[in-house]
Each structure stands twice: as structure tokens, then as C-alpha cells.
């Protein structure tokens, strides 16, 4: 690796070619395969493997899907992603109370006027949070992760801030999220691999997300590179916001979260995802002052007649 990096790279690429050839052989016999999001297919392609689909119009339309194209894309398009919080007290009983609070909020959200596929997400995520403590998921800080949408995150932040204000938890709570989220990452071979309007290779969403969060009251923001697929192929934006029980913390959390999630939902709606289009219309109805440009889709058959 250090004495002859060119040779090392060649050996790695030879190994990738061998591995994808084996996958092709097994897949031909019925195995289902997808890329988990670590740029495996991309690096096989760069190594010379014939992976592009016959109808590929770009360099990311591989014969096998990424897990984002196959599974996660619609979840992000609905606005659900990994919301996080940390009980700075370090006390398990504080985390337990936040879990219980999250369950109550999810129950309330399930009773709202949302599509059945959104209610299914709420049900699945409630089961997760109910099972979290007994499965001993805490490693170090008293923290939790919960897939939630815009409405859920706003409600959770308000409820957590109230727990701090009333002294029901003994110290502030920090809210955040994974960069692997609805809006936090521009990654054409992972998080935005299911964005098909040509914009997947731009880094505007993650940057706008990060800077927009800072304007709206995040305690800190971060803009970083390389998450999951390698330096130069992805931009990630993140934030942290301290809920100290003050009215100001509640105000900032609501304003910031009403940007942090819809930013990405809007982007996905513009690329033609029907679930994202429904989610952003619902957000416009629920958030004062939110106005998002609605996409106007061209007829595919008409486009085929045009000569460029």
C-alpha cells in the first residue's frame, strides 16, 4: 500500500473484478443482490467491470441497484430518516423517559390524516423505540436513534424541550441526525442514487441544508466529505441543537427542523418521486409560510420526439 500504491490499487481492482464475476454467476441462478452503499458497484465499474445497464443514460445506472434505489429511497422521500438525541445527563432513566415520550407522539401522529404507507412507518418505528432499551443498544452516551419525519421530529423536539424545562429530565437534550438522511447528503452512488433528474451529481442540497440549519438556529453545523463512498464522491451536512428548556430553544428547533427535512423532500419531489410530492404538499399545508415550487412533469413520449 505504501511502497507501491499503483500495484496495490491494481490488485484491489483485480479482486473486485473477480468478486463481481462471482456475484454475476450466482445472481444468474436466482440470488438477489444489491449494493449496500459502500461504492462497491462504482469501484467495480471503475476497475473495468461491465456493469452499466443497456439503457443507462449516466454512470450510476448499474445492472444491480443500490440499497437506496431498491429499499431506502421511498423512505427518505416520505421524509423519514434517522433522527437522534442524546441525554447529556448520562442517566438511563432520562433516556427511558424520552423513549416513552416518543411512543406517545408516534401514537398521536398515527391518528392524523396521513396516507396508510406513512402510518405503517409510524407503526414500525414505534416498535423499534419500544424494543430499544431491552435490546441494550446504548454504547457510551445515553443516546437514541429513531426514524422520524418532519412532523415527528418537530413534535419530539418540542416535547423534549418541555421535559428539560419542567425538570422531568435532569439536563439538556441534544438533537441531531445521521448525515445518511433525507436532506443531509449529496451522494450519487448512495443517498441520492435514486434521484434521476440529472441533479444527483451536484452538492447543493447538503450545503444548503447545513447553511440553512445554521441560519435557523442550530447550535453547531458541520459540512464534511466522504461519508460511506469515499472522498470526492459525496458531500455531507449535519447539525446539533441543544434543547435547554428555554422558549428560544423551542423556537429554534421548530424553525430549523421545518427546513432540515423538507429541503430534501422538495428535492426528491422535483425528481419525480410521488411519495415526496405528497409529503411536501402536506408540509406546505402544515407549516406557516412554506411555499415550495411544484414540479411540472413533461410527457416522456413527447420528449422522445425532440431532437437535440
UniProtKB/TrEMBL annotation:
Query: Where is each Urocanase C-terminal domain found?
Result: 74-281
Gene Ontology terms for molecular function = urocanate hydratase activity
Urocanase Rossmann-like domain: from which residue to which, for each copy?
A: 1-71
Top-level taxonomic group: Eukaryota
Any Pfam family the entry gives:
Urocanase
Name the PROSITE patterns for this protein. UROCANASE
Protein known as: Urocanase C-terminal domain-containing protein
Amino acid at each position: 500500500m505504501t511502497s507501491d500504491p499503483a500495484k496495490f490499487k491494481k490488485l484491489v481492482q483485480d479482486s473486485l473484478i473477480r468478486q463481481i464475476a462471482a456475484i454475476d454467476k450466482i445472481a444468474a441462478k436466482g440470488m438477489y443482490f444489491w449494493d449496500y452503499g459502500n461504492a462497491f458497484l462504482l469501484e467495480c465499474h471503475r476497475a473495468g467491470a461491465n456493469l452499466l445497464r443497456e439503457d443507462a443514460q449516466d454512470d450510476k445506472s448499474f445492472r444491480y441497484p443500490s440499497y437506496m434505489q431498491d429499499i431506502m429511497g421511498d423512505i427518505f422521500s416520505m421524509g423519514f430518516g434517522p433522527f437522534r438525541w442524546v441525554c447529556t445527563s448520562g442517566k438511563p432513566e432520562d433516556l427511558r423517559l424520552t423513549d416513552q415520550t416518543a411512543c406517545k407522539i408516534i401514537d398521536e401522529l398515527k391518528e392524523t390524516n396521513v396516507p396508510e404507507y406513512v402510518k405503517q412507518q409510524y407503526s414500525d418505528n414505534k416498535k423499534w423505540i419500544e424494543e430499544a432499551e431491552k435490546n441494550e443498544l446504548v454504547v457510551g452516551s445515553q443516546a437514541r436513534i429513531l426514524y422520524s419525519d418532519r412532523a415527528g421530529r418537530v413534535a419530539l423536539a418540542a416535547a423534549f424541550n418541555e421535559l428539560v424545562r419542567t425538570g422531568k429530565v435532569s439536563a439538556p437534550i441534544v438533537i441531531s441526525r445521521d448525515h445518511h438522511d433525507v436532506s443531509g447528503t449529496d451522494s450519487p452512488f448512495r443517498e441520492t442514487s435514486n434521484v434521476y433528474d440529472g441533479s444527483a451529481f451536484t452538492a447543493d442540497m447538503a450545503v444548503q441544508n447545513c447553511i440553512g440549519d445554521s441560519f435557523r438556529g442550530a447550535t453547531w453545523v458541520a459540512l464534511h466529505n466522504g461519508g460511506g463512498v469515499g472522498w470526492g464522491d459525496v458531500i455531507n451536512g449535519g447539525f446539533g441543537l441543544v434543547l435547554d428548556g428555554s422558549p428560544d430553544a423551542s423556537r429554534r428547533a421548530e424553525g430549523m427542523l421545518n427546513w432540515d427535512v423538507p429541503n430534501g423532500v422538495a428535492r426528491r419531489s422535483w425528481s419525480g418521486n410521488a411519495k415526496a410530492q405528497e409529503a411536501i404538499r402536506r408540509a406546505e399545508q402544515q407549516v406557516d409560510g412554506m411555499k415550495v415550487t411544484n414540479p411540472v412533469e413533461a410527457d416522456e413520449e413527447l420528449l422522445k420526439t425532440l431532437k437535440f
